[in-house]
Amino acid sequence: MKADAASELRELLAHYEIGELVDYEQLHLGYCNVSYTIDTVAQGQRGRYFCRKYKRGIREEELEFEHSVIQHLVGKGFDLVAGIISTNDGKTYVKRLEDAGDADSGEEIFYAIFDFLQGEDRYTWVNPACTDQDLRGSACVLAGFHDAVCDLIPSGKRYEQKILDLLPSMAKAVRRYGQRAGSTEFDVYFVENLRLIQETIDRTVRAIGTGECAEVVQQVIHCDYHPGNLKFQGGEIVSMSRFATCRGLFDFDWSKVDARCFDVALAIYYFCTAWEGSQDGALQLEEAAAFLGTYQDNLRGTGGVGPLDDVELRCLPHMIQASNLYVLNWTIEDFYSAEPDPGEYLMYLQHGVRTITWLNDPAHRDELERTIAESARPS
Description:
The chain is an alpha+beta fold and 379 residues long.
């Protein structure tokens, strides 16, 4: 379907009973999907919703997986997630063929409409510099999310490999991209640090692929838990008071079944890594302690998944490096597939390489291990 956005949205709304389109705004957030806020009117009543046009190439089973996670959370009363609006025929998404001039050559495009989450988009994943209240509130939300989905057997399938299996694939990918490198500032820096990246991937595979780290708790994880995927509001406490200023959690399209401690590690990487000046790439240990300590405290005595156990805690430093490599791999793949601005992506690449260097330092590793051990104790 090739049309301007308004026509596209009107045609989409014919599959729903939420009224006619009266206004819309494209949201220039994220890197993969196309998103809109849409305003409708039905029987004189206005409504506001969130509409997502999914990235090309996503498989139908992956939507089923994502939507089963959201529906499970709604069923558990996790009121920080936007519910999915059902279509006229009771489905959670619309599948269409985008016209390519030949009915047999059209590409499947998927859409979904969600309730609109109120709140402020206060941060992005880059240099979030969260307040202490927002940092701890975010840790509470992640704990609540993990507890709510620990019993979920999801529908569909997420095709991305688990982190343990994904790391060797990353090693092959970065080697392949290194052979394709051009002459931009991104390419030059990437080639200069290619060996470091490869060696760190190999070391991390050995660390988490054998022994106790290979046996950690597996469950549905968010896998993109960063400050830009949360909504906040002022200084007022919202309905779920233990979640502090957090108003909503969204973007579940990267969710999958994987190590629970990898999700915690990825969150610590996103929330607690410095981005500015000489500290770029350094893990801010006070922030990491606050996040981990709050996460642990909120899962004690819940009767669900519980706090990270001793094995998960010992694996956490390796999982933080794996998280950095996970985001670094996205940076490299996106650069060589989408051809974005080299200067912007150089910043992401430099941040990832500097985080590798910080985490590889034995003194920093010792500090991190002490911080984890101390902050994980009951407060």
